[in-house]
Design a protein that fits this description.
The structure is a homodimer. Helices cover 50% and strands 10% of the residues of chain A. By secondary structure, chain A is α/β, with parallel strands linked by helices. In chain A, helix 17 links the parallel strand 6 (330-335) and strand 7. The two termini of chain A are 19 Å apart.
Chain lengths: 401, 401
């Protein structure tokens, strides 16, 4: 049985994700699609709408065969570390291919770009450093440097966000996997950042979330797969709340107002004295939106600040992040019958152990994920739901479809 | 003008406090009564019902002439450090007497007890250590040791809470003041811990708070001075909320679930691995009451745990508490016309500087108090009231009656 790996966040699972999963199976000629998915906190430094278990269920009910969790220390990260963690997990789980969506839609320009970069890496790094000295953020500096160096030779437009992310997968595969072959499919319609829910078949996750918070879950019924709608609707009925940064604002404000700048400095990614800026803004903001608009600059992007705040909320320190270089386990969030068959056949060949049910033995390995689950739980205003969520990581078995 | 000092918390100011202030003036034959009052957090490790400025106003409108704030590092402390801070401030402000309420009601037994203790200090300390080895809390061990050593010779029953607290004032005066003469008046009627609001003239602060949270401010109207009722009523109308530990439970739970035991150990009074016990209870409690009942033991008294939680909420560390041995300023919360006259006459003789309006120059000195004020603000669920309270320490001028 051939398995294709995909890297996802599903916040929430939508029609574009459905298409991506289906096409990945087809173009790679695989029987199995394995998704590596961010847990309760996402790459752009945001709490997910609903927990990882429910997001895995959406995907499994729409045809994905197995969902593993991308641990926090790879998920809430720059694209390069995110890609490295995901590729290592897919490799460990026996995938022979990876398939990602990109604006470009063809794999050759990615391969060619990788060769160009390998040939000119010192020049590239020099250029990026120069651009950052001008006050640009890393993503902006990298995009500008790629453009200056490779524009004439490359067919790949790395200013497009999904081309850039895909290129990180290509790079990670090149370094960390001997057996994975990369594929890409054309990303259609909505851009990630699109905020309006249009009438096309595929709406962006951003526009779907916005619509849900403005008009309720019912309003997106026709824009998402049935599985997504029913999981969202049931979850909201049971828990009374979907989560976003607003639910965590008071915790962030409390931390910033009661900790010294030097103690805040031990938090991962808290660099260049940005904690002084965060404290000043926290003293003078009534909600998360006000706070973010006070903090954001050209250099400190929205995403970078959100990631810092996520580490602050979960008390994730530089010290512990520096001691985690490679994934140590495959945390199984769920599977369908075909996924189970694949696992039974091949799991002995996996190069990482599978964790299906968390127990005390896993404390050490999964410490950050467990803590992130508990921090996530604090977003519920209902103390009973909060309590359920605090123990959820330990009580949840994988979702079986 | 002779000034008498009193040490108070006023949570809230009630008829017994009124009697105490009036009698203190009479028995010491003073023109001025100066109160040193705990700030937003109290000696027993609790957030006050309402901020220090409003509590000072209640007292000033009932005849107290000047209110100074007892800084956090002396207020949220064992009785001996609490008494030391208060006596040093009263001495610095020129008081020639101190007057406290006690169950005993006569000063001679206190003086005699002090002499007895001075003569037998090593034996006393040895006994207290022995009692603590049996698992007793410090207050219980001290009470038992005093009883065993001095019962036959002393007329003072130190098992009575106000006798014990008064005895701390006597001890502090003996060590830290040459000019203060101690007086005591008989404490009548309700004990501090009484929870039922009875029909006598004097109701305990505990019973008044309980009644307010159960039945609203209106229900205590006839049990408190008019000034207290009107300040409470107005404050509640403006802020929609009086504060207690329930308002801070989610912050405590968040801190306990996202910090490592070793990082919690830097918090003041976090000793003997009690952080493990706190974390375990936080994982399994839906509210503050449940949590406290899980944590409390014979050795870890309710008060001791609450003080630890207050330090946790304000991130007050062992390191900073150890570096603060003596009050550095007199923070003026308010005064009446007579208080102002006294100040104009004598403030040049004061041995500590007066801070009336906080500004950037005071940051270093008042760092813990400013932080405590901000932590206190986080208890308001309304983000606009929270914001007002965050800056209140800087924006408030002293209350002038």
């Amino acid at each position: 049985m051939k398995a294709c790996g995909i890297v996802v966040e599903y916040n929430p699972f939508h029609n574009g994700h459905q298409l991506h999963a289906d096409q990945s199976r087809t173009v790679t000629n695989s029987e199995i699609v394995i998704a590596v998915m961010s847990g309760n906190f996402l790459q752009r430094g945001e709490p997910a709408l609903l927990p990882k278990q429910e997001r895995a269920e959406m995907a499994l009910r729409s045809g994905v065969d197995i969902v593993f969790e991308l641990p926090y220390q790879f998920a809430v990260q720059h694209a390069s570390i995110f890609a490295e963690g995901a590729v290592k997990l897919l490799d460990a789980a026996g995938c022979s291919s990876i398939c990602f969506g990109s604006e470009n839609g063809k794999i050759e320009p990615f391969i060619q770009q990788l060769q160009l970069e390998k040939d000119q890496r010192p020049e590239l790094q020099h250029k990026i450093r120069e651009q950052m000295k001008l006050g640009k953020s890393y993503p902006a500096a990298a995009a500008e440097s790629y453009k200056q160096l490779f524009e004439d030779q490359s067919q790949l437009d790395l200013a497009k966000p999904n081309n850039m992310l895909g290129y990180q997968y290509i790079t990670a595969v090149d370094v960390f996997s001997d057996k994975i072959k990369p594929y890409t499919i054309q990303r259609t319609s909505s851009q990630y950042h699109d905020e309006s829910l249009n009438h096309s078949f595929i709406s962006s996750a951003t526009s779907i979330r916005k619509k849900i918070f403005e008009d309720g879950v019912e309003s997106v019924k026709n824009h998402v797969p049935e599985s997504t709608y029913s999981v969202l609707d049931k979850y909201l009925g049971n828990h009374g709340q979907l989560l976003n940064w607003s639910s965590y604002w008071s915790y962030i404000q409390h931390i910033l107002l009661t900790n010294s700048p030097s103690s805040l400095e031990r938090i991962y990614e808290m660099e260049e004295g940005i904690q002084y800026r965060l404290i000043e803004a926290a003293l003078d903001s009534r909600n998360f939106g006000e706070f973010m608009h006070k903090v954001k600059t050209k250099r400190y992007t929205w995403t970078r600040i959100q990631r810092i705040l996520t580490h602050l909320l979960t008390t994730t320190t530089k010290e512990e992040m520096q001691s985690n270089h490679s994934p140590a386990y495959l945390r199984m969030l769920g599977m369908n019958a075909k996924g189970r068959e694949y696992l039974n056949l091949y799991k002995n060949d996996f190069t990482l152990p599978i964790i299906s049910n968390l127990n005390r033995n896993h404390h050490e390995q999964c410490a950050i994920d467990i803590r992130a689950g508990r921090a996530y739980a604090m977003g519920y205003s209902n103390p009973i739901k909060r309590q359920e969520m605090i123990v959820k990581d330990f009580k949840s078995a994988p979702v079986i479809i």
